[in-house]
Design brief:
- The complex is a heterodimer.
- Chain A is α+β, with helices and mostly antiparallel strands.
- Chain A has four helices and seven strands.
- In chain A, strands 3-2-7-6-5-4 form a six-stranded mixed β-sheet.
- The two termini of chain A are 31 Å apart.
- The longest helix of chain B has 18 residues.
- The radius of gyration of chain B is 17 Å and the shape is globular.
- Classes of the chains: A alpha+beta, B alpha+beta.
Amino acid sequence: MTGTTESPQFELVLSVPKGEGMTDTARANRQLILDYYIARKKGDPDAFGRLVDKDVAFFQASSLPYGGEASGVEAAQALIRSMYATWRDLRVEVLELTAGGDLVIAYLMLTLVSRATGGRYHGPTAEVFRIRDGKVVQWRPIYWDTHQVRQVCGVV
Amino acid sequence: MADNVEPTSFSLVVSVPDEGRISDTVRADREAVLEAYRAMAAGDNDALMKMLDPNVTFHQAPGLPYGGEAEGVDDLLKLVGTMFGTWSKLHVDVMDVAVGTDVVIAYLMLDGISRATGSRYVGPTCELMRLRDSKIVEWRLMYWDTYGVRKACGLA
């Protein structure tokens, strides 16, 4: 971020917790998410239930065809089901798992085919997990381009 | 990814590098990125730019008003300048910095006021930086809601 003639009023604040980073807890959290992805890959139907806290908060950007916020396991699963109902084909490649403090961010490549239009969406995604006592308490997928998702699904 | 109502075709691939490859180098990279953010917060707007590799690639989603890709520092600065030109006020809160094998992902809260409309956009953002020899070779911004940015800027 550099200065230009059209620079906005710019303010940068750091709220990063001191001393965090790849601590033993962060390492364990990273392994937790890796184990979850591996269990999902094997088709383990209980993987989600084991991973999340009963009060998990799940977020999808409001502009997505299945956008919204959910609190609790059942509401989160309902939101995920509406996501699944949108796509005919869904390919997820987990490229990287980063961790720091109580946060794990998975870097994914998503390839999706819309059930409604047959259109294809392809883009990186950051799946952000906040973890407390070995359970996911906050889950937030950050898509590369929600505008493009809408276009592919025929929403725009 | 929960159970039930799977898409017709679902595949999950886990390509995550081994955790043992999270080296002391990447830990140092995290510190270097944090130090650059601290310097920026203290008024040195070019602190992060000093970490760029000459052949850095920069990626912003095409759905953004300033979407596109840049290769090399000069092109990157132009694209960043276009981004800054879009907002009259921009507040960035760096909340967490996570590390993987060769990437650092900063988890930010971005709060911007559109120069064109005066409307506000607020959303979490992941700033992915891939480093080689302590230089940023890939820089990718993942916004919570590119459609939301378009709306704030009067494009939707």
